[in-house]
Amino acid sequence: MSSRLEADHLYKVFGRRPQEAVARLRDGADRAELRADGATAAVIDASFTVDPGEIFVVMGLSGSGKSTLLRMLNGLLEPTAGQVRFDGQDLTALSARELRQVRSKKISMVFQHFALFPHRSVRDNAAYGLEVQGVPRAERERRADEALALCGLAGWEKSWPDELSGGMQQRVGLARALATDADLLLMDESFSALDPLIRRDMQDQLLELQKTLKKTIVFITHDLNEAMRLGDRIAVMRDGRIVQTGTAEDILVRPADDYVASFTQDVDRSRVLTAASVMDRDVRGDEADCDCETAAPDTPFTELCAISARVPHAVAVLDEDRELVGVVPRQRLVGFLGDEQGTPGTCDNRRDKGGEKVAVHA
């Protein structure tokens, strides 16, 4: 499967002599050195790919460069160096007019602040992107109403933005992006301004929509819990650089450095981990022929804990062919819930490293 979106060694430098600054960064200079000379390196050598239908999350603290990176993906900011390719087309080589065409039809953006027109109805706000495209009024209203219905706003089409709650206004912003039927959605801290309960509701809404629409989405956030809940893969940024890219489990279980590990300390691991991410793989065994309760590699962590509480031994993890692929001792579960990283240990084919029996027969 070919990638839908590719970022290839992107740099963005603001200030004096940006090209010279890029050359210095490639030679090992850091941001502080550039700032002393009047240049600010917002994004440094960022590369990643996004597959069709994937939610790719970019997360980092304020000032890490994530929003600048997002704006380079649709040409709102021109990269100082590097390329952005969308469906194989080099967006950085397009003229301003060609970029506007791409943004109006193929790439939609959902902002943190709803950016609704107060003098337009909910329907007209949702239809705005189609109006820019020149779609006839009847068609754009039909498509806007369909998008509003998808976002749970059927019946609110004739309302005004100030009659809606913050969460409902953000749904209108999402409906506006969906109405254009764009292939790529860029979402910049789209839920960050919402109250926690509304924010979670919007996350649920996005995940539910994605099951049907299967859009390619790049989502920006500073919240790791949100990143891990939404992202098929996550890129963690620090000081303009991407320091790790991987699944939620990769980042939680195998952080690239202390900076990434510090983000995971307060994460609810039970919502992310599965049996495959916590099991001890250094085991040997054939088909399980016992009547004991076992787990599959994709068994959620919370369910795994429940199984462990019901059996007097380490939990055996079996693949779809009923082959033993790992075991999960109780202390491993406790370790992952605590501050430990749960580094895999070793065990023989019938006992874990603490001596617990494994109820699997070879």
Automatic annotation (TrEMBL):
<dbReference type="InterPro" id="IPR051921">
    <property type="entry name" value="ABC_osmolyte_uptake_ATP-bind"/>
</dbReference>
<dbReference type="GO" id="GO:0005524">
    <property type="term" value="F:ATP binding"/>
</dbReference>
<feature type="compositionally biased region" description="Basic and acidic residues">
    <location>
        <begin position="348"/>
        <end position="362"/>
    </location>
</feature>
<keyword id="KW-0067">ATP-binding</keyword>
<dbReference type="InterPro" id="IPR005892">
    <property type="entry name" value="Gly-betaine_transp_ATP-bd"/>
</dbReference>
<dbReference type="InterPro" id="IPR027417">
    <property type="entry name" value="P-loop_NTPase"/>
</dbReference>
<dbReference type="InterPro" id="IPR017871">
    <property type="entry name" value="ABC_transporter-like_CS"/>
</dbReference>
<protein>
    <submittedName>
        <fullName>Glycine betaine/L-proline ABC transporter ATP-binding protein</fullName>
    </submittedName>
</protein>
<dbReference type="Pfam" id="PF00005">
    <property type="entry name" value="ABC_tran"/>
</dbReference>
<feature type="domain" description="ABC transporter">
    <location>
        <begin position="23"/>
        <end position="264"/>
    </location>
</feature>
<keyword id="KW-0813">Transport</keyword>
<comment type="similarity">
    <text>Belongs to the ABC transporter superfamily.</text>
</comment>
<feature type="region of interest" description="Disordered">
    <location>
        <begin position="338"/>
        <end position="362"/>
    </location>
</feature>
<keyword id="KW-0547">Nucleotide-binding</keyword>
<dbReference type="InterPro" id="IPR003439">
    <property type="entry name" value="ABC_transporter-like_ATP-bd"/>
</dbReference>
<dbReference type="InterPro" id="IPR003593">
    <property type="entry name" value="AAA+_ATPase"/>
</dbReference>
